[in-house]
Amino acid sequence: MHRPVWRRVAVVVATVALIFGTATSPALAADAPPAWPTVSNGQQNVSVTTAQYLLRYKGSTISADGVFGSQTLAAVKSFQTANGLPVDGVIGQDTWTKLVVPLSTGANNDAVRALQVQLNRYGYGLQVDGDFGSLTGAAVTKFKALFSLGTGTAVDATTWQWLVGSTPPGEQVATGVTFKSMQMSTTHGSAQVYVLTVDLTKAHVGLIWPGKVAQRATISTQANRVGAVAGVNGDFFDIDTGGTGASTGPAILDGHDLKAAVPGAQRFGPTRPPGTDNDYVFGITSDGKPTITTLDLDGTATTPGGSFDLQGLNQYAIPVNGVGVFNADWGATSRKRATCGTDTNRAGACSTQTREVEIADGKVTRVATAPGSGQIADGHTVLLARDSGVSNLSGLAVGDSVTVNYHLESGNGSALQTAVGGLILIMNGQRLSLNDDTSTLAPRTAVGTSTDGLKLYMVAVDGRTSSSVGATVKTMADIMTTLGATQNAINFDGGGSTTLVARKAGSTSVTVRNTPSDGAQRAVANGLGVFTS
């Protein structure tokens, strides 16, 4: 049985400045311009990147990496000296007004890159290439309309002040649900981030799925199927060629146990933090509280020959020498994959010793020496054994009495209404030890909660593009923490699976809001949806 893991890991969290944006909000009154941000040594954010590009335009040779270090400090002081400003190394109002330059279409330089970085804070998704062409011009026009700054594509000092100093509004998806997009700086470069913020006092979240465990569908299909107003993709899944499509971890739908976790190395996804395994889930309790806990299968079958423990529920892999249970939730997909590989080698051979029995109304109705396929009837149960586990079923014949009982038991004792597996980033306010290797930069999806448990953040990060580097699991934790998800956070499947969807005003179906790296939505095993009724 699992117990909560209390790991106190000392982590230095890089300061990540997030400024939200969307290009679809109504115009805002442009009264007094916002204050210029104060940027100083040690900061790491989009304002730093903007200032660095402007300093480069003014002749500095520093890199525009978003990190205010010693080279940037020296460049700022040099610029202040040259322009008769107080030499304090701090970029405040007086320094900003000397740094910014008028721009118009046709320009191609680092000042345009600074402009593009700022426009991307508002969700325009521009390539930061320094070319003030039609796309950048269109973004400027929309931005100026957003803040009632006039028409045209010319960028003057007032436009710069609104660009750099303001916080863009979000888009209301539904009551208690907002969507924002942003360009942000991380320790590995700039990333495009999409955020759904859910007020759990006004909306709720639940598992979405294709309708069967061993089945896949796009997140928009899964969300629309059950009327979700927004959502993100969920757990890692059996994505091998010809695979079942079933998710790796446990899953609970509306209080109903769908499946348990596969054993050991049968999992898919990044290396888990020390002290965690495949049984960890993000869950919603029966009284609507978010939590992170474990789910273990507690199951027993009793036959005329005795009782034995069950070691799998609707899983694409049963532990070596184990017996698993399958029901109608599994679907019509062959159950053979569940007898292949080992607990330490996902690619291992399939077992040559298998046995399967089907049970209805407490009686054996079918016995086979090989795993079957086809839809299991409602109310019927299939027991599938591999390796030495077949001895538990070997004496059974049609007509024998068999009693099967099982349920998923949480490690913290909570009754869960919703559960979905993933890789834990933050648990009970403590950050875990996470990989930050640049070779793992990828599109990523995560969900996390505020300290008071009243806000849920659902996040997708683009990756593998020229305008977004993606994230490691560590930088994903940085992003979640900065957003406000300081209590619990879980990393879901990433890469081509990363998808965030939300309804637009007046629509009854969701729209993809991020940029899937496959070029289109990938069919996935499950997700987390947002509901307002």
Description of the structure:
With 533 residues, this protein is α+β, with helices and mostly antiparallel strands. It has helices at 46-57, 70-82, 93-99, 110-120, 134-146, 157-165, 219-226, 473-483; strands spanning 171-174, 177-186, 189-199, 204-208, 230-233, 251-253, 256-259, 280-285, 290-303, 306-309, 323-326, 354-360, 363-368, 380-386, 403-410, 416-421, 423-427, 430-431, 444-449, 455-461, 488-492, 500-503, 510-512, 527-531. Strand 19 and strand 20 (455-461) form a beta hairpin. Mean pLDDT is 92; it is low at 3-26.
Structural class by secondary-structure content? alpha+beta
Low-confidence segments: 3-26
Number of strands: 24
How much strand?
A: 25-35%
Gap between N and C termini: 36 Å
As a whole number of angstroms, the C-alpha radius of gyration is 27 Å
Keywords:
7-stranded antiparallel sheet, 533 residues, alpha+beta, 8-stranded antiparallel sheet
Please provide a brief summary of the model.
The protein has helices at 46-57, 70-82, 93-99, 110-120, 134-146, 157-165, 219-226, 473-483; strands at 171-174, 177-186, 189-199, 204-208, 230-233, 251-253, 256-259, 280-285, 290-303, 306-309, 323-326, 354-360, 363-368, 380-386, 403-410, 416-421, 423-427, 430-431, 444-449, 455-461, 488-492, 500-503, 510-512, 527-531. The chain is α+β, with helices and mostly antiparallel strands and 533 residues long.
